[in-house]
Amino acid sequence: PWQPAEEKAQLLQNSEYQERMVESTFLYLTLDLPTAPLYKDEKEQLIIPQVPLFSILAKFNGSTEKEYKTYKENFLKRFQLTRLPPYLIFCIKRFTKNNFFVEKNPTIVNFPITNVDLREYLSEEVQAAHSHTTYDLIANIVHDGKPSEGSYRIHVLHHGTGKWYELQDLQVTDILPQMITLSEAYIQIWKRREEDETNQQGA
Q1: Are strands 134-144 and 116-117 parallel, antiparallel or unpaired?
Q2: Which residues of the chain have pLDDT under 70?
Q3: What is the CATH number of domain 26-35+47-192?
Q4: How far apart are CA 172 and CA 40, in angstroms?
Q5: Which positions fall inside the USP domain (predicted)?
Q6: CA atoms within 13 A on the CB side of 189
Q7: Burial (0-12, 13-18, 19+ Cβ within 10 Å), 24
Q8: CB-neighbour burial class of residue 68 (10 A; exposed 0-12, middle 13-18, buried 19+)
């Protein structure tokens, strides 16, 4: 629950409410989608909500608080990146399990496929140690359909030619980069751009 700053400061003096900092390694970053209300337009057609990638990346800015609940307590966590690896995997949290079934959030994430700069998600002292903080998308896994009976498609960048391809089972087809951003992205792989690399993706 929300509390005035003075009360919050007093609580933080209490050992029970002391902030703790824990450093941990990660294999991928989980990006949470906002709850998706499905609006209907005047023709009674469903309108699927959209969210910018940078809105869901805000979880890692060091100041956004996320509430976690266990059976006996509630606590808040803040996340901040302390290192940027050569490759980053984003897992967009589309599926939620409850006691009876799995629900899928269909929100579309709007993202650029090149030049995603993650510098602001590093603390100031860590920023100085990172000369390369910009990433380009190299693979995008999409989930289509219902959670229980859906299918997967993969978008992959061919590094040599800078062309994108869509793979589904044994089918391989060309795809325009701008079409990738219209899909229900589920898992993404990003490659850090090094200084001497040129952008061949043309998008």
Answers
A1: antiparallel
A2: 1-19, 37-45, 195-203
A3: 3.90.70.10
A4: 35
A5: 1-193
A6: 10
A7: exposed
A8: exposed
Instruction: Return the DSSP state at 53.
Output: H
What is the number of other CB atoms lying within 10 angstroms of the CB of residue 103? 13
Q: Write the single-letter amino acid at 101.
A: F
- CA 108 to CA 123: how far, in whole Å? 29
pTM of the prediction? 0.80
Q: For residue range 55-80, what is the model confidence (pLDDT) as tens digits?
A: 999 999 888 888 777 777 777 888 88
What are 29's two structure tokens?
């970053």
SS3 120: helix
In angstroms, the CA 116 to CA 136 distance is 6
* Cα–Cα nearest to 59, from 83, 80, 36: 80
Instruction: Read off the pLDDT of residues 108-132 as tens digits, 9 standing for 90 and up.
Output: 999 999 999 999 998 888 888 888 8
